[in-house]
Amino acid sequence: MTQREPIDCHEAAQRLYAFLDGELTPDLEAAIRRHLELCTGCFGLYDFERAYLRFLEARTRAVGAPAPVRRRILDELFGDEARAE
Amino acid sequence: MLKAYRAWDQYERGTNAKAWLLTILRNTYINTYRRAKTRPVMVDVNEIEPYTVFRDVRSSDPEAAFFSQIVDDRVTAAIAALPEEFREVLVLSDTEALSYAEIAATVGVPVGTVKSRLFRARQLLQKQLYDYAVAEGYVRPRREEHP
Questions:
Q1: In this predicted model, which residue has the larger pLDDT, B47 or A34?
Q2: Domain residues of chain B, as ranges?
Q3: Full domain range(s) for residue A31
Q4: How far off is chain A from B18, nearest CA to CA, in Å?
Q5: What is the pTM for the complete model shown?
Q6: Domain count of the fold of chain A
Q7: How far apart, in whole angstroms, are the C-alpha atoms of residue A49 and residue A66?
Q8: What ipTM does the predicted assembly reach?
Q9: Is B57-137 in CATH node 1.10.10.10?
């Protein structure tokens, strides 16, 4: 695999949520990080959106059913499935 | 989750427990938000502009502190007002912390569709919450910063 081309602000904006959700491949993630080190505009945007997602997560989990219970059961199910495979 | 316990006898052993459980979760959330009483006017999906809020607050509130002023009821109402296909991906991602692939399997759409719906759902909700914050005076609109 060759080193990725540097990404521009447009691509950084497009991949914003995939990055924050941890859905990018390691090489793409690294390319984003390199861009953020150089670009204060995109760095600010990513920071702002990260704060927004944290807010959303905290508020919607507070409103919903008990998250720890639900999470534990989901984890057990995912774990069972992973062990079976 | 209680619904899953109650309906456990309907679950067939050997079938996909994860998918079964996620379907219940999804239906529960759809029902919960359908029942929400406060239902603001729906926003036209085509009017969503990406990153408007950050552009507006980058000089006054780059840390997004204004979000913390917004009350829970307003957040719930804004989520309830989202178009259903947006609301479900937002809840499955931001509340349930499912991966894109898990959301795709639960909703029954390709991963690319999950990505675009999640993007628009988050931007639409952010805009609504920002408009509310401006109306309540939690954050100053951009035009007042540069008279």
A1: A34
A2: 57-137
A3: 9-83
A4: 6
A5: 0.70
A6: 1
A7: 26
A8: 0.72
A9: yes
